[in-house]
Design goal:
Elements (H helix, E strand, L loop, with lengths): L1 H6 L3 E9 L2 E7 L9 H8 L9 E6 L8 E7 L4 E2 L3 H13 L7 E6 L2 E7 L5 E4 L21 E5 L2 E9 L3 E6 L8 H9 L9 E9 L2 E8 L3 E3 L3 H13 L6 E6 L2 E7 L6 E5 L2 E9 L21
Parallel strand pairs: 2-3, 4-6, 11-12, 13-15
Antiparallel strand pairs: 1-2, 1-18, 3-4, 4-5, 6-7, 7-8, 8-17, 9-10, 10-11, 12-13, 13-14, 15-16, 16-17
The structure holds 2,6-diaminopimelic acid (API).
The site of 2,6-diaminopimelic acid (API) has 20 residues, from α3 and α5.
Subcellular location: Cytoplasm
Catalytic activity: (2S,6S)-2,6-diaminopimelate = meso-2,6-diaminopimelate
EC number: 5.1.1.7
């Protein structure tokens, strides 16, 4: 009996959601205590032994004035990251479904800054993803900047890519056909390439015409996902900078389509797409978890020195 009681932690309510198949466990950490260590996040992310998700999204009270919520994002590998585009749309749907707000324009504090979410009548969500950065510390490529295309050596192979930060780092390669692109082989090598000190999300972009593109993304900390919102934004920025795309692009990902608009350097990237709620659930956490702050629980993603 004692053993049983010791393993009985608190019950945790959550909602399973997805944005074009990029799937999330979403937790309201306002009305329930919530602290998870990275190892517990990894266990919950496991698609056989846990709930299964690409990212965990946590809703917290705002930490800044004139902001409605704080939004924390954890990859399946347990690392906390700065931005998640598909997650932002699901966040907007979640806080309204859970009656945490009835606003249609929601301001959310993230590790990257404040983003603004607008919920449309048709259930689509428009996100102001902020102004992209072209050579922040996470993607230090300025030295050899040439039309924002850089060369990186991967096991003796020279790879050309663009480097764009949407708050989180992205490398973008232009390929002839996403269906035959080396996402599973080159993706993981570039995700952990030394040129990306905080690792990176790697996008494989196929240009169909100046306003249509296809994209696959090998995500940092999650592997290839069916869609990547910040990746679609980074890909359109890269395509525009390379003179291959116009300012409004329909991006077709494996899980569906996003509309991305960008008016050029110094302006924010706007993303519009759906957000789907799949089911609500609750689970009993292990006895050693809960609201007490623990060493190493969910610390922001640390860039490698
Ligand atoms: N894997 C990303 C976070 C999730 C991004 C993606 N799911 C999106 O929709 O933007 C990173 O480590 O920066």
């Amino acid at each position: 009996m004692n053993q049983q009681r010791r393993s009985q932690g608190p019950l945790l309510r959550f909602t399973k959601m997805h944005g074009l198949g990029n799937d999330f466990m979403v937790v309201d950490a306002i009305s329930q205590p919530f602290r998870l260590r990275p190892d517990m996040i990894r266990d919950l992310a496991n698609r056989n032994f846990g709930i299964g998700f690409d990212q965990l999204l946590v809703v917290e009270p705002p930490g800044l004035p004139d902001v409605d919520f704080r939004y924390r994002i954890f990859n399946a590998d347990g690392t906390e990251v700065e931005q998640c585009g598909n997650g932002a749309r699901c966040f907007a749907r979640f806080v309204r479904d859970q009656r945490l707000t009835n606003k249609k324009v929601i301001r959310v504090q993230t590790a990257k800054g404040v983003i603004e979410l607008r919920v449309g009548r048709d259930g689509m969500v428009m996100v102001n993803m902020g102004v992209p950065e072209l050579n922040p510390p996470a993607i230090p490529f300025a030295a050899d900047r040439r039309k924002d295309v850089y060369t990186v050596d991967v096991d003796g192979q020279t790879v050309e890519l663009s480097a764009v930060s949407m708050g989180n780092p992205h490398g973008v390669l232009v390929v002839d056909d996403v269906d035959t692109a080396p996402v599973g082989t080159l993706g993981p090598k570039l995700e952990r390439h030394p040129r990306f000190p905080a690792r990176a999300n790697i996008g494989f972009l196929q240009i169909l015409d100046r306003s249509h593109a296809r994209l696959r993304v090998f995500e940092r900390g999650a592997g290839e996902t069916l869609a990547c919102g910040s990746g679609a934004c980074a890909a359109v920025v890269a395509g525009c900078l390379r003179g291959l795309l116009d300012h409004r692009v329909e991006v077709e990902l494996r899980g569906g389509k996003l509309v991305i608009e960008w008016q050029g350097e110094g302006t924010p990237v706007m993303m519009e797409g759906p957000a789907t709620s799949v089911f609500e659930g609750q689970l009993r956490l292990p006895g050693d978890s809960g609201s007490r702050r623990r060493k190493g629980s969910g610390r922001p993603h640390k860039q490698r020195s």
